[in-house]
Amino acid sequence: EVLYKQIIMESNILCVFTDVDGTLANNENQLSLKNAKTISALMDSHILLVPATGRSKVGFLRMFTEDIMDIAKHHGFPGIFFNGAVLIGPNGIDDIMKTWTISDECMIELCNLLDSIKIEWQPEDEGYEEAKLKGETHRGVAYSVYLLNEFVHNVRGSHLRYVEGLSREFSVKVESVVDVIKKNKNQSLKFIIGESREKLEEIKDIVHAFLKDKPARVLFSHPLILEILHIDCSKGNAAEHLLKTLNIHPENCLAIGDAENDVELLKLSGISVAVANACNMAKGAAQHIVSSNDDDGFSEAIQKFCNIQINLD
């Protein structure tokens, strides 16, 4: 068992929680050399770094090239993945401490609801040519479902492809997402909807009304990503669970993020930081604003609030 005991240090920060896309990663969805060296400096200072991301653990590690991995020396644990649906503990990448899954019944009803909403076929949609030959003009909403060991979708349009490019995780098209859910009982971690922002705003209202009496919630994890998660699933909730296990007080933590799904984590931590490119909700929840993700705002925050100097030579 790994124990992180309180050590006397000027900054008093023992743990750093960081969002990945839009925060730790740059706009090319990569880890910069400066941020990699910052992670290394954190590890050398015995400050725990916990990624808190919508990605899976595999998607997180794909952000690291071999050279960057050698510098950063971080292997994805402990970590908060799928926006809090999976918590990986400190004893290895397979140390699953807790999962928050959506009920199969709720997931199946969601699929049926979204299939009933009609959207005009676009040339970039997967299956467009086949639909055109059949004389079909409209389709259901494009969505993906993350299960513990599978990532599947119904239709991959341009926006869903964007989501996959962001996470570097690629789902498999299936004839029936419902059948996959039934096969993998009680393993549904999150539901991703990929359409235009305008359409997502409409869909969010419909889904929010549908979820009114169900143990699930809907939120934007990115301007073009709408997610449905278990009602108790959040980065903040997973972080609290981890901190209790490690005997670390939230006041001794720093959190940095950019999106709506980072708000609970920002409110939990003793020091909360938003990058300059963050949404208004994240900025409103943060005590401090640093440079954007493309200008190494993560490194700026660590140097400023953890009193760590980064050697860029």
From TrEMBL:
GO terms for molecular function: magnesium ion binding; phosphatase activity. One of its GO terms (cellular component) is cytosol. Transmembrane segments: none annotated. InterPro entries: HAD-like_sf, HAD-SF_hydro_IIB, HAD_sf. Pfam families: Hydrolase_3. NCBIfam families: HAD-SF-IIB (TIGR01484). This is Haloacid dehalogenase-like hydrolase. The lineage of its organism: Eukaryota, Sar, Alveolata, Apicomplexa, Conoidasida.
